[in-house]
Amino acid sequence: MAEKKPGLLERLLGGGQKPLAPETPPPLPPVDVPPAPAEVIAEHALAGPPEATVDYIEEVEAEVEEETEPPPAPAPLPERKQGWFQRLASGLKRSSDQLSGGIASVFTKKKLDEAMLEELEDLLIQSDFGLEMAAIVAGQLRRDRFDRDITADEVRAVLAGEVRKVLEPVAKPLVIGPGIRPFVILTVGVNGSGKTTTIGKLSSLLRAQGKKVMLAAGDTFRAAAIEQLQVWGERTGAPVVTGPAGSDASGLVFEAVTRAREEGADVLIIDTAGRLHNRDELMSELEKIIRVIKKVDATAPHATLLTLDATTGQNALNQVEIFGKRAGVTGLVMTKLDGTARGGILVAIAQKFGLPVHFIGVGEGVDNIETFAAADFAAAIAGKH
Ligand SMILES: Nc1nc2c(ncn2[C@@H]2O[C@H](COP(=O)(O)OP(=O)(O)OP(=O)(O)O)[C@@H](O)[C@H]2O)c(=O)[nH]1
Ligand SMILES: [Mg+2]
Q: CB under 8 Å, gap of 24 or more: what pairs does 141-145 form?
């Protein structure tokens, strides 16, 4: 590793919260959101098709059509090449230290035997790679290296190779589709999984690309949640559509998608309240939010991102399954990989669901987000630097 990287502690203390690059375009004018019309609110409460709302949508659609510009080329979000691997390795340090240390203690210049393979399987299961992955890695070593000398480093290389094979098909960048304006991104996930922070990080990445970003404070439950998003909006130069705390989330989201259209935003990112996947009524509320978005734009949301807290380990599998079914998740962001030794869960999720993984979060700062790259992640987690 050539570069000196900030330590994990510095990253956690917010060392990554650097000011935006000077070329960042000026922010959109602030959005002053009037309360949604009474009929819109009533409509959301009943979730039925309102005449007034449909007219309104048609008017907005007509206006938008008049102003339509040629579609831009598809643009994956930028990759910050420099120091990528170092940042990733430092973020994944706890996962890789646990595994790498464990591998070093099992593989001590002895001939590979069944007991060693079992210990390796246990290690991988403890690090949340899952039974299947553990069996694949052990099977590979048994086939190729049984009864022969093997070093810890060789085991790490085999592990990195197998992890890479599983992750490569899911490592897909978030592509802001051509000609889709606003590109609506809905974020969902359990409480505290990193939705709002991820929105701030994404807003920063997109603003640095010159995009007009608008944020929607769809977590209307808590005043603090609205303020938290407003801080991210100010920091990244993105106006935030808000409503009063305690107001109907779908009403606010309707307002936000409409305004994003009217004001020509390139991307609208919608925050939602954290909800447990096993709380049926909260999941129904999420479905209602999605229905309301579709009333303004039938093709939206164009991306539904599930944030997963890596420290929750195996429970993340249930979250993917249920949010996937109820909210039509299109891609994953795994957060807090810097604070856990359980990064292997990403491999188990990739193997079970095959959903695209767009980003990983490796700290609380605005820059602590990485586009997901399979080979680098595999090498970093296996401690094969
Ligand atoms: N170390 C670390 N902390 C993170 C990361 N992402 C988010 N956090 C922290 O996790 C906590 C929860 O993050 P939020 O973004 O508020 O999570 P949320 O999903 O919006 O939470 P609710 O709105 O309560 O559901 C905050 O203290 C964040 O700073 C990450 O990648 N690494
Ligand atoms: Mg939040």
A: 141/112, 141/117, 142/112, 142/117, 145/112
